[in-house]
From TrEMBL, chain A:
One Pfam family of this chain: FTSW_RODA_SPOVE
Keyword Transmembrane helix recorded: yes
Subcellular location: Membrane
Ranges annotated as spanning the membrane: 12-33, 48-65, 72-92, 104-126, 147-164, 170-190, 197-214, 287-307, 319-341, 353-377
Topological type in the membrane: Multi-pass membrane protein
Source organism: Perspicuibacillus lycopersici
Gene Ontology MF term list: lipid-linked peptidoglycan transporter activity
A single cellular component GO annotation: plasma membrane
Xref: InterPro entries: FtsW/RodA
Alphabetic keyword roster: Cell shape, Membrane, Transmembrane, Transmembrane helix
GO biological process: cell division; regulation of cell shape
Keyword Heme: no
Protein name per UniProt: Rod shape-determining protein RodA
Length: 388, 702
């Protein structure tokens, strides 16, 4: 224990610095976005407050080491599922539907979105499922791999079904992305992964193609709303729905930013939901291609850092957690930025750490908290292993 | 322990590779984002910048002057007077503050008319006062503002409180001239030029505004048109009226045809019927503005064209004279007793060969001191009357056609005694008479017998007279060939056919014009048909449609459409029969016993015609309608006329032959005008010759 490094040295300052940079970007973007005067609330103040809360969450997360998380996994997972089930049965007085989705608990001015935390709980759960599996089956065969895939599938399907029930397609897709990333890293044989991923990919492409070319075919099974989403994505100019208009304004804002941008507060185009889901359009319009690329690079740096942690971690459980959080963050960033630049259809997914929103930020901060904890307790394990 | 290490090795064997694959996938996805951003912001960046900067294209319609209306001699009948006008075109989303700003600037330059100033309400002034005084913040207490925050008071409550608390004293600061301008601007429709002031715009106002247009966004100077009728009330109802702005009840219809809310539109008779010709095409100008509302580009999309000019067939000189004759004769007749039921008379003058209407006159005496005469020109086809014996020409020809009589047949004019009805007769028992005498002397019995025979009846004195009244339709069919009881084809939707009397025991009265009612225009068409040898001509009111000239205030020089005479039908009767009836008509005006002999026998123009007297009812009195149809000259008719004076008198004595006098005066006036014009032409020709002569004299002197 004398060799134990001092607390400040065990803390992952690099990760903290990356999050701090994202915080700065967030404040700049939101402070500019809220000048279009859609709302009267000062979102900058609120976002600083939520970052404050996030700091406490990280500090709290550090109280537990990864072993304890492992033990708590099923309790947390159960708690998350309980909240999601509670949402379904909760009266609208405390779970008022927003935009047609019952995803939020509302207590007076405070509101919380259980699915934001469920994502991290699920990552923990899948990590434990994989780690336990590998402990149990030392020699892996196609049969044991299939068994593992089934277990991961069941663990995923429960929260996924509950979230799609709300309905919240965006978060549902995040759950799928997390699972896909973790299945990849779990070590399941390529002989299983490749066919599975291919089938899923072909299925997805087929459904979307049918929606585009043979719309009558699926009319009874898929909401008209989802059709509008696809059409307004592919051809916003002729499909003049709200979403089509939303996309056009976002494209105009980002496109007219050109290389160097219009400068802070220099934005000209009115885009809806600019402080939340479309916050990236502010960055790209005011700071141009250079600013936008820097923000994307910042996220890439974050992912790179997480990969490094995963590779350095000494337990499978920790590595899988990293893989899950990497998948989650990547999908969030890709989907959110992608929808503002017509790479993907519009879905209500925020940009992590930058979009305004308490629940989303707290969810992400909790995920980061787990990473901090992995790093914080990392060295001690290393020494103990060496001593053995 | 060894075992454990082995296990660890195994673990490490798959995680790093898989992690790197994951990392590579992340790298690919992020590269897609950067690539796409590059395309958007670098490759297409300029395109989007242009889109953002010149977003607004505003298309504005400018109204063009309405077509003018001329008479057959190309004298202006309805015309436009250009007026200087100040217009305001609101932006897409005009703000009250901006409107007030423009109003104040304009208020320093122009003075609105008193009529406009009177329209300013107290509410208008209060709205302006609020705009000028920080939205009236000082009128609301802190407590009330708190209540608004707590939602105990609504915004509209607060607004009402402000309105109530503005004092008279405070309102005095509001300039009434500015307020009247603000009203106009506030009520203007977005992107539509609206006239702020068009009456009495002075040259100074006009010049000052044109110099300061840049400071007055939305304000423009233009030319507006006021529309006037040259001949005041003459023919005015048939010329029709126009609205200022679209009529509220037909808003959707007109808007669907591309009209703006404040457009003029014809709402009655000629103005309405020829709306599409008179309206013209608006000029369309597209203005491209940047985000600061600066005009970047102005494109004329379509030039627009003034409305086309109409040339009427009407001779306004004759029209005016005829209307004067009607007024004078009604006044003269009303000096006699038993004429208080008389209030109107109609005269239609047509060219029987072409159907061109030269005069369409109707006058109604209102008894008002201010406007004693109502122009009832449209009554010539929207009102119908029993016309009496004037229709007997049609009766005789129908008799020939159905075979119940032949030209020259004699019938006994006797006292008619049908069982169960009153004894009736012609005004005089005439004995055995032929068809021509029956027309000349206007025998009722002859015509009755013809009608009865057509309806398979057989008159025996003192007995009941059974009739096959179904056959009255046959008579009506032949009458309609002359235009009687059917639409004449003049084109107005308001035209009526007249009433059909009940086909009962008195059905035979149709033969003397005592059953169905006919419009004055139908009577004119009928007599034209007899005059021209059997062709029912469509009455024409418009002769030509002309393209407007570059100079909007003159008759257009190019004819677009010239209306051709149109034969609606040829009557079934033989030409020699028609000539026979023409002779009968000539004997009415020339024969020794002709009913109109005294009025026409000595006239130089050789008229033929038929008089009529019909029983009618008005104000509970049994009255008489007096009528005349005729044409002249007999050999080569130039005009055919119908005159009807409904309810001219009551009682047993006709005090004054008003219809014959009017007819005589109308004929005289027509030929007098014709002669005068010929002389004028001659004089002009001579004058031209004279100038030529003086020229030669001058040449000689040199």
């Amino acid at each position: 224990m004398e060799n134990q490094k001092k607390v400040p040295d065990r803390f992952d300052w690099t990760l903290a610095f990356i999050i701090f940079l994202l915080f700065i970007v967030s404040i700049i973007a939101i402070s500019s976005a809220q000048t279009s005067g859609q709302y009267e609330i000062n979102f900058v103040k609120m976002q600083i407050f939520w970052y404050g809360v996030g700091a406490f969450i990280i500090a709290g997360s550090l109280l537990f080491d990864p072993d304890q998380y492992k033990k708590l996994t099923w309790i947390l997972y159960g708690f998350g599922i309980f909240l999601l089930v509670a949402l379904i049965f909760a009266p609208t007085s405390i779970a008022e539907p927003r935009n047609g989705a019952k995803s939020w608990f509302t207590f007076g001015p405070a509101s919380i979105q259980p699915s934001e935390f469920m994502k991290t709980f699920l990552i923990l759960a899948i990590s434990r499922v994989i780690a336990d599996h590998h402990q149990k089956f030392l020699t892996k065969t196609l049969k044991t791999d299939g068994w593992l895939l089934l277990k991961i599938g069941i663990t995923t399907l429960v929260p996924l079904a509950l979230i799609l029930e709300q309905p919240d397609l965006g978060t549902g897709l995040v759950i799928i992305a997390i699972t896909a990333g973790m299945v990849l890293v779990s070590g399941i044989s390529w002989k299983i992964i490749l066919p599975t991923f291919s089938v899923v990919a072909i299925l997805g492409v087929t459904i979307i193609s049918i929606m585009i070319y043979f719309p009558e075919f699926l009319k009874d099974h898929i909401d008209v709303y989802q059709y509008g989403r696809i059409y307004s994505w592919l051809d916003p100019y002729s499909y003049s729905s709200n979403e089509g208009y939303h996309l056009i304004s976002s494209l105009q804002a980002i496109g007219s930013g050109e290389i160097f941008g219009k400068g802070y507060l220099g934005k000209e185009v009115y885009v809806m939901e600019r402080h939340t889901d479309f916050v990236f359009s502010v960055i790209a319009e005011e700071f141009g291609f250079i600013g936008a690329s820097l923000v994307i690079s910042l996220f890439f740096l974050l992912i790179y850092h997480l990969i490094k942690i995963a590779l350095e971690s000494n337990t499978q459980f920790n590595a899988y957690i990293c893989a899950g959080i990497i998948s989650m963050t990547t999908f969030h960033v890709f989907q959110n930025i992608g929808m503002t630049i017509q790479v993907l259809p519009i879905t209500g997914i925020p940009l992590p750490f930058i979009s305004y929103g308490g629940s989303s930020l707290m969810g992400n901060m909790f995920a980061m908290g787990v990473i901090f904890s992995i790093r914080f307790y990392h060295k001690r394990y290393m020494f103990s292993t060496d001593k053995e | 322990m060894k075992h454990k290490q082995k296990q660890k090795k195994k673990k490490k064997s798959h995680i790093p590779l898989r992690m790197n694959i994951l990392f590579f996938a992340v790298f690919l996805l992020f590269s897609i984002l950067i690539l796409r951003l590059g395309v958007l912001q670098i490759v297409q960046g300029e395109e989007y910048t242009n889109q953002v900067e010149q977003k607004d294209e505003i298309s504005v319609d400018y109204s063009v002057p309405r077509g003018e209306i001329y008479d057959r001699n190309y004298q202006k009948v309805v015309y436009n007077i250009p007026q200087k006008a100040i217009t305001y075109t609101p932006s897409k989303n005009p703000q009250p503050d901006d409107l007030l700003d423009v109003s104040k600037k304009l208020g320093q330059i122009i003075q609105m008319t008193d009529a406009d100033k009177e329209k300013v309400t107290e509410r208008d002034k209060k709205d302006i006062w609020l705009l000028e005084n920080k939205n009236g913040d000082s009128l609301i207490t802190k407590e009330e503002k708190e209540m608004l925050k707590d939602k105990k008071l609504s915004d509209s409550d607060i607004y009402q409180m402000k309105l109530d608390r503005i004092t008279e004293e405070q309102l005095k600061s509001v300039d009434i001239n500015v307020a009247s301008i603000y009203r106009k601007l506030f009520n203007a429709v977005a992107l539509t030029p609206t006239i702020v002031k068009n009456a009495d715009v002075t040259d100074e106002e006009f010049a000052y505004i044109s110099e300061n247009l840049a400071d007055l966004p939305g304000v423009n100077i233009t030319t507006d048109w006021d529309r006037k009728k040259t001949y005041d009330t003459a023919l005015s109802t048939v010329l029709g009226n126009w609205s200022q702005g679209l009529p509220a009840e037909q808003l959707e219809y007109y808007e669907s045809k591309g009209y703006n809310l404040n457009d003029r539109v014809g709402v009655s008779y000629i103005e309405e019927l020829y709306e599409d010709v008179l309206r013209g095409t608006k000029s369309k100008v597209k203005t491209v503005t940047d985000k600061n509302n600066n005009v970047v580009d102005t494109k004329v999309i379509s030039e627009g064209q003034s409305g086309k000019d109409l040339v009427l067939t009407v001779d306004m000189d004759l029209q005016v004279e005829v209307e004067k004759i009607i007024e004078e004769e009604i006044q003269k007749m009303k000096e006699y007793p038993n004429t208080d039921t008389l209030d109107r008379a109609f005269v239609v003058v047509m060219n029987p060969k072409t159907g061109e209407v030269l005069t369409l006159a109707g006058k109604q005496y209102t008894g008002n001191k201010k406007t004693p005469w109502y122009d009832y020109a449209h009554g010539t086809f929207t009102s119908a009357y029993e016309s009496g014996s004037a229709v007997k020409g049609a009766t005789v020809l129908t008799g020939y056609q159905t075979g119940v009589i032949s030209p020259g047949d004699q019938l006994l004019d006797e006292v008619f005694n049908i069982k169960g009805t009153q004894v009736i007769s012609s005004y005089k028992v005439m004995g055995w008479i032929d068809d021509l005498t029956a027309l000349e002397r206007s025998s009722n019995v002859y015509m009755w017998k013809v009608a009865i025979a057509i309806m398979d009846g057989h008159y025996v004195s003192g007995q009941a007279l059974p009739l096959n009244t179904d056959k009255i339709d046959l008579i009506r069919y032949y009458f309609s060939q002359f235009g009687l009881g059917t639409k004449t084809g003049i084109g107005f939707s308001e035209e009526i056919e007249g009433l059909k009397g009940a086909a009962d025991v008195n059905a035979f009265q149709i033969g003397i014009g005592q059953l169905d009612t006919y419009t004055p225009l139908q009577l004119a068409q009928y007599v034209s048909t007899i005059a021209n040898g059997g062709y029912r001509m469509q009455p024409l009111l418009v002769k030509e449609i002309r393209n407007p000239d570059v100079n909007d205030n003159a008759l257009g020089s190019t004819i677009i459409e010239e209306m051709q005479p149109k034969v609606l039908n040829r009557i079934d009767m033989k030409s020699e029969w028609i000539e026979h009836v023409q002779e009968g008509f000539w004997r009415v005006t020339h024969g020794s016993q002709g009913t109109a002999r005294s009025f026409f026998v000595n006239e130089p123009y050789d008229a033929a015609g038929k008089t009529g007297t019909a029983q009618s009812y008005k104000d509970g009195k049994s009255t008489y309608n007096l009528s005349f149809v005729g044409y002249a000259p007999f050999d080569d008719p130039e005009i055919a006329i119908s005159v009807i004076v409904p309810n001219a008198y009551y009682g047993s004595n006709q005090p004054y032959s008003i219809s014959n006098v009017i007819s005589q005066r109308v004929f005289r006036k027509y030929f007098e005008l014709k002669e005068k014009r010929q002389n004028n032409d001659l004089e002009n020709d001579e004058a031209e010759n004279n100038t030529e002569e003086t020229d030669t004299e001058e040449n000689l002197q040199e």
